């Protein structure tokens, strides 16, 4: 009876379910089967989906390439042209013509068989193999499987029922055609982990490791890999099974900027056998070397890097002049294209090729290198997150298009950042959005280092590459959604807040840079610039990280057991690592300062530094021991053994105790009507003392009493909150048998909308600006020292004067006349294209505009300072500034300028390393 009824319905209903019926993949008893089209990628996709369904349901699905094994409901995965999908289409009347001639798209729909109405298919038909795979990935996402289910132990949770919407879904095409990752600097993480833990039978990054990497790429919808290539790792093509694993997973293989013609020169070029790696003296040998690989990989899907550099990420060997380098590069490209055409039996312009304009290659290109227009130009950033150059209108018209090579991990000068992944998501969004808007959309590759701990940044980069509509979303919103996918909705907003603060603090100074040392040549650590204003700025940073670590632990304690490992990998370890290396180094900087001042805090600060280092050691050991040792060898707390990572000596001072107490209330400066939080410091001169404080109403203390002793270095900082409403003067400190007056300063409220002066500085933030009506400036969310930055329009041409330009404008007041200067603080981007500069025109009141040029060249000392601080500043001396109201106007002379803030600095202003406090 049931079959007859279904047959009657089928006679009158279209093949797709008429009312968007649910596809129930698990009803608590049975789980849907999986049928694939027999192609290796589809078979692997079916097996991956089966693992997901099994983890979710506790039932093991049947996986087959035989449709006859499908029972009442089966998931069908295949390409549109496969025999399996054609069979399902014929059985159901499905129309899949929307997939014709498409790149990586899929259609998913619940269909009913006409021959057997009791049978239903959840069809995932791809326009090509990867299209079908993305359909499988999206199904897993809809069922709640994280992309990091294996790589960060976000274990799928068992459910009682699995269902998805059965309505027809046609996926959008990927925004960027080639989207990939570069495994790099793998010497301290990925390679030793693979060799000793995950794949000891190979003793290297072999096919079993790459299969896991390719599955992760599937879950992130990436289709291109540049394999690991350091000399610690055997070359990709020398390990049997690696190339086959890529082909089986439908992954396109390319090579980095330093590896033309799919070659790994570091381990594959043997000078004893092949001679020098010198195109001028050994061209025949190099052509043989390139030709061998071109023939070996002709049947694989590849994007070939072309061009000519040194043997390993160095300038071309044998070129004595820029002209020689230019000529040799052009001739080498011609030779390489001929070899590719011969190997593949195609015209050269039909073989996918890319030229990465990295380091000196960008200079050669700028000198006039003629690159065949079918070759994709890949624009690099400067290794620190700032794209060096993007295409001009003429370059955007090239048939090969262009793309971007980006870093979230880097080895090199002025300093590595290989340990913790701290590139700000808002910077990634801003830089890749400008690439998108300037049509650099063909190929995006991100250097992910060891993959871990760069999970989120990798995910975000690849999400933007797949779907450019995410640029309309703030980074904070994306991070919140990502946190929900890993840890659930309840804590997602708090987790996003924690990680945003983590990235904010690192944007001011990365954890790896906190020693203020440099590499290549390696320079020792030194007392950092956070001390130069007397130590308060260093202490505020320590406190900020301590508060962040506290919040992290508080959220971690609320998570269920099955998310504890994932939490530690994705949040806990990075936050605590960053907090502890800051506490260690800044505490020692403060100890050195306090020793010179004869303060008894030296030993307590040294003890805090020692404890912080011990926590890094313990946390790293815990990371590598997680999940039964699954990640043993993955995390190294001291990559390259740079000075900043070494355990430092801890000072000890013997300072004679003196009677008496003191209170430093210099920070207690409040603005009428503005709630804020400041600190005061209570200390004794080496004698134990009990203390208590009473302050005016309107002021509250985090703690109002305590004890000064050796454990705290006879010094305690107290957080003071002002409610903004009351008139205040101060209070009294009782310390031992002494009473000391505590004085607070209350500044008058500024004019409505005008910022207040603190510490002789008026800091003008992007939110304070009057925006021009012509759209020449726009807000960039979540970026910069004030949580938003201002960007000059990407579409406006450069100008040499302010004629016809509308300015940004800020109003502020000077309480008294005095010497002042204007510090314009920018985020250190580069000129948008080769045709642009990086200039602002600035006017104070009615004075003539002053033009400031922020462009840096090469690897200058200024560029090094800029990228280590994510900041670039220019100063205008104002002379004696009259008391009263003033106006600052800023005009964009070039597109793509990123303005962080403007500080009006009066005589006596401290020279903060970071942004001055505003509350």
From TrEMBL:
Keyword Isomerase assigned: no
UniProt-recorded Gene Ontology molecular function terms: hydrolase activity
Keyword Hydrolase set for record: yes
GO biological process, one term: carbohydrate metabolic process
Signal peptide positions on this chain: 1-20
Annotated keywords: Hydrolase, Signal
The protein's name: Gylcosyl hydrolase 115 C-terminal domain-containing protein
Lineage top rank: taxon: Bacteria
Domain spans labelled Gylcosyl hydrolase 115 C-terminal: 775-917
InterPro entries: GH115, GH115_C, GH115_sf, Hex-like_dom2
């Amino acid at each position: 009876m049931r079959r007859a009824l279904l047959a009657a319905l089928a006679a009158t209903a279209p093949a797709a379910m008429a009312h968007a019926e649910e596809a129930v993949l698990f009803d608590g008893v049975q789980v849907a089967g999986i049928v694939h089209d027999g192609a290796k990628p589809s078979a692997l996709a079916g097996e991956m989906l089966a693992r997901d369904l099994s983890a979710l349901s506790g039932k093991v699905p049947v996986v087959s390439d035989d449709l006859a094994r499908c029972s009442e409901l089966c998931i069908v995965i295949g390409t549109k042209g496969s025999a399996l999908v054609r069979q399902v289409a014929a059985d159901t009347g499905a129309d899949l013509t929307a997939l014709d001639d498409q790149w990586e798209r899929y259609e998913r729909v619940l269909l009913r068989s006409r021959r057997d109405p009791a049978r239903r298919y959840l069809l995932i038909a791809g326009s090509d193999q990867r299209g079908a795979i993305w359909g499988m990935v999206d199904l897993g996402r809809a069922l709640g499987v994280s992309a990091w289910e294996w790589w960060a132990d976000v274990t799928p949770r068992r459910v009682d029922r699995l269902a998805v919407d059965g309505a027809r879904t046609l996926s959008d095409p990927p925004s960027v055609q080639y989207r990939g990752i570069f495994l790099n600097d793998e010497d301290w993480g990925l390679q030793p982990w693979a060799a000793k833990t995950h794949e000891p039978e190979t003793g290297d990054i072999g096919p079993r490791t790459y299969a896991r990497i390719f599955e992760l790429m599937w879950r992130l919808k990436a289709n291109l890999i540049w394999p690991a290539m350091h000399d610690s790792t055997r070359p990709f093509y020398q390990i049997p099974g690696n190339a086959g694993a890529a082909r089986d997973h439908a992954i396109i293989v390319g090579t980095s900027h330093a590896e033309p013609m799919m070659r790994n020169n570091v381990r594959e070029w043997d000078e004893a056998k092949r001679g020098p790696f010198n195109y001028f003296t050994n061209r025949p040998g190099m052509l043989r070397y390139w030709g061998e690989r071109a023939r070996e990989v002709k049947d694989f899907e590849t994007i070939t890097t072309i061009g000519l550099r040194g043997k390993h990420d160095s300038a071309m060997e044998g070129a004595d002049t820029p002209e020689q380098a230019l000529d040799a590069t052009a001739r080498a490209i011609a030779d390489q294209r001929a070899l590719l055409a011969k190997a593949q039996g195609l015209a050269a312009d039909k073989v996918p090729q890319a030229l990465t304009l990295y380091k000196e290659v960008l200079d050669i290109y700028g000198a006039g290198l003629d690159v065949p227009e079918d070759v994709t130009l890949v624009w690099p950033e400067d290794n620190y997150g700032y794209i060096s150059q993007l295409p001009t209108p003429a370059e955007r018209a090239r048939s090969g298009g262009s793309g971007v090579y980006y870093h979230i991990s880097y080895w090199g000068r002025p300093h590595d950042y290989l340990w913790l992944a701290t590139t700000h998501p808002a910077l990634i969004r801003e830089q890749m959005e400008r690439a998108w808007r300037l049509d650099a959309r063909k190929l995006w590759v991100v250097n992910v280092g060891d993959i871990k701990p760069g999970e989120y940044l990798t995910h975000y980069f690849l999400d933007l590459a797949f779907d450019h509509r995410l640029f309309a979303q703030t980074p904070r919103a994306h991070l919140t959604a990502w946190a929900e996918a890993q840890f659930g909705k309840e804590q997602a907003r708090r987790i996003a807040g924690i990680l945003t603060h983590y990235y904010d603090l690192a944007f001011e100074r990365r954890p790896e840079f906190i020693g203020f040392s440099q590499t290549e040549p390696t320079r020792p650590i030194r007392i950092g610039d956070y001390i130069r204003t007397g130590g308060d700025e260093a202490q505020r940073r320590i406190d900020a990280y301590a508060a962040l670590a506290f919040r992290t632990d508080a959220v971690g304690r609320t998570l269920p057991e099955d998310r504890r490992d994932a939490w530690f990998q994705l949040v806990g370890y990075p936050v605590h690592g960053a907090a502890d290396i800051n506490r260690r180094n800044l505490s020692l900087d403060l100890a050195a300062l306090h020793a010179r001042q004869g303060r008894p805090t030296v030993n307590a600060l040294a003890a805090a530094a020692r404890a912080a280092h011990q926590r890094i050691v313990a946390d790293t050991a815990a990371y590598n021991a997680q999940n039964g040792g699954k990640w043993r060898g993955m995390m190294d707390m001291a990559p390259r053994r740079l000075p900043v990572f070494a355990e430092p000596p801890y000072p000890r001072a013997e300072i004679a105790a003196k009677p008496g107490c003191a209170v430093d209330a210099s920070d207690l400066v409040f603005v009428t009507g503005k709630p804020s939080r400041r600190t005061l410091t209570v200390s004794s001169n080496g004698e134990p003392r009990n203390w208590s404080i009473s302050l005016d109403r309107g002021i509250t203390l985090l703690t109002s009493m305590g004890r000064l002793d050796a454990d705290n270095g006879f010094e305690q900082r107290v957080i003071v909150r002002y409610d903004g409403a009351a008139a205040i003067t101060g209070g009294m400190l009782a310390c031992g048998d002494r009473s000391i007056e505590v004085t607070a300063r209350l500044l008058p409220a500024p004019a409505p909308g005008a910022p207040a002066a603190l510490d002789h500085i008026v800091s003008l933030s992007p939110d304070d600006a009057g925006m021009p009506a012509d759209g020449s400036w726009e807000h960039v969310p979540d970026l910069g020292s004030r949580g938003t930055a201002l960007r000059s329009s990407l579409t406006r041409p450069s100008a040499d004067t302010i004629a016809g330009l509308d300015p940004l404008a800020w109003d502020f007041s000077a309480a008294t006349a005095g010497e002042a200067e204007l510090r314009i603080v920018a985020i250190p981007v580069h000129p948008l294209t080769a045709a642009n500069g990086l200039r602002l025109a600035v006017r104070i009141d009615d004075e003539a505009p002053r033009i400031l040029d922020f462009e840096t060249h090469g690897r200058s000392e200024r560029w090094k300072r800029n990228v280590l601080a994510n900041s670039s500043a220019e100063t205008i001396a104002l002379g004696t500034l009259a008391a009263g109201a003033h106006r600052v106007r800023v005009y964009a002379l070039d597109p793509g300028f990123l303005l962080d803030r403007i500080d009006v600095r009066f005589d006596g202003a401290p020279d903060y390393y970071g942004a001055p406090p505003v509350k």
